[in-house]
Amino acid sequence: MAGWFHQPVKFREELSEEKFQPARADYYAGPPGKPLRLLLQARTDFLSIWRNDDFTEKVSQIRLIGRQVILVNSPDLIRQVVVKRHENFERKSPQMRRALEFLLGDGLFISDGDTWKQRRPLVADIVHAKRVPAFGPVMERTTSELVERWNGMPDGAQVNVLHEMAGLTAEIIARSVFGNQLGDDSAAAVTEGFTSYQSLVDSINLGYFLGFDDGLPVLRTPTLRRSVKRIHRIIDKVVEDHLEGRGDHNSMVELLIRRQQRNPELKLDLVALRNEAATIFMAGHETTAATLTWAWYLLSRAKWVEKALHDEISRVCGDRVPTIDDVPQLELCKAIIEETLRLYPPVPILARQARQAEMIGDIAAERGSLVLIVPWLLHRTESLFEDPHHFRPDRFMGGRRPTPYSFIPFASGPRVCPGLHFGLTEAILCLAIIAQQFRVAVVDGHKVEPICRLTLRPKGGLPVTLHRRQRPSHDR
Q1: Residue 92 CA: distances (Å) to CA of 87, 244, 362, 397
Q2: Which pLDDT belongs to residue 249?
Q3: Helical H runs in 127-178?
Q4: Does the pLDDT value for residue 475 go beyond 50?
Q5: Measuring CA to CA, how many Å separate 193 from each of 196, 234, 329?
Q6: Which stretch of DSSP H or E encloses residue 464?
Q7: Protein fold of 11-468
Q8: Can you give the pTM of this predicted structure?
Q9: Positive or negative, the Cα torsion across 443, 441, 449, 351?
Q10: What is the pLDDT of residues 135-187, one digit of tens each?
């Protein structure tokens, strides 16, 4: 009986000469017309419930315990949902709202309505693309510190690169958002706290399917409370320091505080500031850490791409450490990150809840129905991407761009991630600085398995060995 509830997931990975299909769950082959079984399978692994014909441009629907679920996998209809009819579909799914409300409160990522309208421009301005160059030195310095630490290890040292990238991006976002260093202990506490939090939150909110339009609250177990407390304690201390005048005047949180002082109607009290700081922090460090981790996996297998990357870094940067000014010339490096985001979007399922009944294509969406836009499917649809399961960074080079609304790793429309430019620049720069000095190789025999909880990570992290390439002859 236990096997019926927890169906094993088969993973597929294929590597031949200069062709690489990275790890993915095999197509679902369970019997049709068994929605309860599908729902239980989704609780085990949301990426393993898709059949071969789901990876096509279409809109379709199923019923799960009486609840309508609509899958939208067509760029034109995705545009309808996220742009043209945004206000009807702006609300995140009950699953996502309930899963994150304990951690983020009414933070921008899961808020909607007036709260979202009021805070979105404020947060978007703070992480706007025009501010990103100012944070370049923070990214460069923090990544160089990680490289220096790795240089203190013996060649071939083994590390969990997911943990390493999470610590790196946590420190970068801390220095950028908060204007001060987290330190190894606090960075590790936040990273481990969120890892624990993800593992404890159910992938499905059964209350929603049982008829509760807002789902049911997540059970706040002692373990879950401890995970949240670890994260909140660190973020609260930083916000309180800012409120008491001990913050960096160039940090993102300081900008939020000054805006609140000028505009009291924003009602950004300590709790609201904490929620927005936590949202920026968690979204900013988790997604980039996952992206970099997947990039190291892909490069470890696709040696020909790794060599081309090393050649590009040498050509653009010589023996000096890459800087943010080099990013526009690092075309392959950017393409590798974009292709990584295509194959392993950090948030592989974008779910919305219909406020009112409305037609989506030829399907009548009911009020309260769940509308799924799944980048995991969309990015692997053959009519939109040739060789969709293959790792091919060249598809993003030479001025080539995907069909609009077919590549949405940061979502799209008014709810597009406001930190898109920050995260993309950070990932490119971190990859270049590290790859200049190290080859990162997945440990022999390790089986990589993508798993989707709140974000998409390799199950158990990614054990790798570190191999020095060369040291820059001088630092700049």
Answers
A1: 11, 35, 23, 33
A2: 61
A3: 132-151, 161-173
A4: no
A5: 5, 11, 37
A6: strand 463-468
A7: Cytochrome p450 (1.10.630)
A8: 0.90
A9: positive
A10: 899 999 999 999 999 999 999 999 999 999 998 998 888 887 777 676 777 77
Q: What is the pLDDT of residue 472?
A: 46
Q: What is the pLDDT of residues 280-335, one digit of tens each?
A: 777 778 899 999 999 999 999 999 999 999 999 999 999 999 999 999 999 999 99
Count Cβ atoms below 10 Å from residue 18 Cβ, excluding itself.
Answer: 9
Please give the torsion angle defined by the CA atoms of residues 87, 55, 198 and 418, in that order, rounded to the nearest 10 degrees: -40
Nearest to 89 by CA among 66, 116, 115, 112: 112
How far is the CA of 476 from the CAs of 137, 317, 322, 386, in angstroms?
Answer: 11, 11, 9, 41
CA distance linking residue 258 with residue 244, whole number of Å: 12
**Tokens (6 digits) for 381:** 């649809």
Tell me how long the chain is: 476
Convert 299-323 to b/e letters by CB count within 10 Å (16 or more is b).
bbbbeebbebbbebbeebbeeebbb
Share of the chain residues as helix, strand and coil, in percent rounded to the nearest 5: 55, 15, 35
8 Å CB contact between 447 and 159: no
Strand intervals (E) in 325-384: 350-353, 358-360, 363-365, 370-373
Q: Is 417 annotated as a binding residue?
A: yes
Helices (H), 201-330: 206-209, 222-243, 252-262, 270-301, 303-317
CB 49 within 8 A of CB 336: no
For residue range 55-77, what is the model confidence (pLDDT) as tens digits?
999 999 988 787 888 999 999 99
| Residue 347 near residue 46, CB atoms below 8 Å | no
